[in-house]
């Protein structure tokens, strides 16, 4: 679960029980007609606990995420719980800002905070919970949230606040109390994760037509990030003040072109605010704000590209969500349907649009470029999302989004100062967070599934460039010696196996393109995971430059910056998704692999304390569902010929890690990865090794689902005799024919058809035992 390499860590381990999920399976029989998915979404899921989601308004993949911030006053080490701006157990709202991550393990953003104020006095500071300024108390009973819409009543100013958002615009609607003067406070000082001296420079310009434009440059997780905005109001200003609350010497760096006579008023500085007065209003005030990463003119153009008032924008966005969420129709008891529908919703928030309506975007080189024939995307949490989020998008958004994603990754690589693909990027800026070069499997998986719209050979060249950049993360030593040495590079064991997996996907794509020299080179590198696997102890371990394994060794130890990335040997010793059969042979065969998997889930944690590690949440023994390295592990029993054990473990995970409540995610959603895991698992299959064109069959958690594919076909999933008691798969058919293998091919799904499970209360210990029935492994099969 990605977090900044600075490792700002705090907070207790939180597992989050979810027995309600499977208990719901005993509910009344499901309706004969599959209802729409959008009505089942609950944006409050994940806003408590450690889910780090936000409840505010956003369009599918929208540039604007307009949402309430309940606390932005934290110091760095206390900000983890407020990474999305909103935390469900907070009693006050500080304001409504326009940019947020959905479920990240670290944070930034919270740009352009707006707060309504009523009455004669206008406080200019948020204050505290005990002594509020423009901050206001609120009640959850007054909140409403649905895709593209959020509303709340602010107790302090007695204002009903409503929010909606389009692709590049956010729209506020504020109903002020009768007879009270209406004001807005616009605070450019406010930001999530208050890095020291985060606001480098900012500006406000009030134009003759009443449009307020501005910008700010910030230094935070993404250094030197620039954001511009333009906002208009449904009522004329009766007064205003543009204020600089900072007395320091002005910054002499970045400055946009001067506004000159185009501004009625201008203010530049590090700590800007605007007080905007509207007098007494006889109708709600609407505020429409557009963002741009390019310039203020781009923000104005984006504002004009999405015309209409609050209701018009809300209607368009509701329709867009209906179309996007309609890709998966569900028939399930209400709690499960809510969880899966919301998971799909969270999976469709990022990667977010980054280019302006005219195609211009700001890149990692801090220069402006233009996207031709596609929409530039950013917000790439690739260490998390390559696993299930991006594979899900290849099914539910294959052309519009997946093609945009690949073109965006390639465009970033072309203008990157280092010539490599994004690692963890947002707002066009690289953060260098987490490990691996996981844009590579995203591109390879899309290409191998037949998704086009990009230059495949140029894509392969970009992939090879990223995998050959020696200064990055010990890659030079990895290429020359076959592993990353721990005495030269931290987290070396994790880096070795993640590089090897990425290399395997390069080999797969190169072979498909007929570039056999590249395929042969990366086929060899795909086996490098063996160089860090200690056969004597049965663990993946870090090695020194002299070839010895580092000692002392404790497979339960989790210490950031040591041998593993956000985990320990228990999780990382299973990360060979391209060759699980090869791993099982090193472990001594199927029976021993199964015993070790069982030992992982059944481990007695009573004497271990992982509270020093924020992202280690959702524990089932040493299985850690709140963090991504464990996400494929329950499916590995199928590689040992025991899919019935996968079915048992999946029931255990879903029951304990998900529930339809604010604390219903056991760990950070990580830009949709936790949610995509649930969507796939609910459908009954999961992409253990993206790039293999296979999905490992688990068991369904819905009675019926219909996957509407981009090619006009549909793929139906049926679960006969579906109930809580019937947790096992008794039989599987594909298009009416018995399916003797424990995997689906991607082409079989895209062709359309019906996957039917017959559920039972007793395990079938014979189905899937044969070696030929098992999913792809590099050392035992060469399926294409």
From TrEMBL:
Q: Where is the Glycosyl hydrolase family domain?
A: 299-760
Q: Which domain of life is it from?
A: Bacteria
Q: Name one Pfam family in it.
A: Glyco_hydro_92
Q: Which N-terminal stretch is annotated as signal sequence?
A: 1-32
Query: Any idea which UniProt keywords this protein has?
Result: Signal
Question: Glycosyl hydrolase family 92 N-terminal domain spans which residues?
Answer: 41-292
Question: Which species expresses this protein natively?
Answer: Sphingomonas endophytica
Supply the name of the protein: Alpha-1,2-mannosidase
